[in-house]
Amino acid sequence: MKISPRNWAAAAGLALMATGPAMAEELKVSTFVVADQSLLKAVEAWGAEIEKRSGGALSFVYFPSSQMGPPNRQFDLARTGVADIALFLHGFTPGRFPLTELTYLPGVFEGVTVEQGAAAMWALSQDYLAAEHPGTHLLAVTPTGSARIFSQARFDSIESLAGRRIRHPGAVIADTYAALGAVPVGVPPQEMADAAQRGIVDGLGVSFQAANDWKLEGISDHVLDVDFGVASFALVMNQARYDSLPEDLRSLIDETSGEALSRALGAATDASEDEDRARFAEISTIISPGADEMARFEQVFAARRDEGVAALEADGLPARAFFDRLESTLDSLRE
Questions:
Q1: Exposure letters 247-277 (e unless 16+ CB within 10 A, then b)
Q2: Are residues 199 and 56 in the same domain?
Q3: Any residues with CB less than 8 A from the CB of 2 and at least 6 apart, and which?
Q4: Residue 43 belongs to a domain
Q5: Please, what sign has the CA dihedral across residues 170, 172, 174, 177?
Q6: Residue 21 confidence class, pLDDT cut points 50, 70, 90
Q7: Any residues with CB less than 8 A from the CB of 316 and at least 6 apart, and which?
Q8: Which residues have CB under 8 Å from 32's CB, separation 6+?
Q9: CATH number of the domain to which 283 belongs
Q10: For residue range 90-99, what is the model confidence (pLDDT) as tens digits?
């Protein structure tokens, strides 16, 4: 059968229409954080850059606020391929990321910005942390701001915490609260405000950013301004999904993630921490213990750091090597 030039052109156009969309790749990004949270905004900015530089060949669709699963399932959503990418908090699955969780020990990031802390964590990621994220491609990692204690009652000393029920963001910080005589309580972030209002907890261990994200104003007249430790976030991509992408798109992801993206997440947290701290300073009493009391806190914290490292060493993990490298990297950033 003879095909006219006109019909041939039409057929070619239909073929291009059919193959065009198939060439585009869309990645589903899941997280438990709310839609306007600064970390997610930083991830969205990264995604927008990739979409622009790829000419639309790679795009992203976002599912915040645990739409795809609860906070403690976010990593597994990416690992199993239910989501292509997940932004998650390590502390929601205690013991699963043991070396990463050493960063939760109190005072580790004292004197550095969150961005600097993110760079330090990324510097150790390929030697130590990536292996704790099996089935995924590690895109970025960052600490949070330091956890303070937000409460209605006034806490200003170690004695004032004795027997008090304090919500914790992970098992490592829970152990720190316990070492201070408090009673650590696990509460999902979306339930924190309700737990405080109902008296289930006496205080909430969160950063200033998290206190703002989860709307704790009005139920936290006091903030104990002590660095009880940080939590940590990672952005991971399903390894099989990453491997399935064309080489040029994988290269684009690699070029824009890693240290650069980790620093971007950290910088976003720094900005939010500063803004949210100033906001809470206007509506709450921020309590900074005196030098003598802080020295007592630091005694407990130093013991916690030693105990945390020793416990993982006893389990056969290279905790001392990791922690020493982390501390030396952070020391170089403090200079």
A1: eebeebbeebbbeebbbbbbbbbbebbeebb
A2: no
A3: none
A4: yes
A5: negative
A6: very low
A7: none
A8: 64, 65, 66, 70, 71, 74, 88, 89, 189, 190
A9: 3.40.190.170
A10: 999 999 999 9
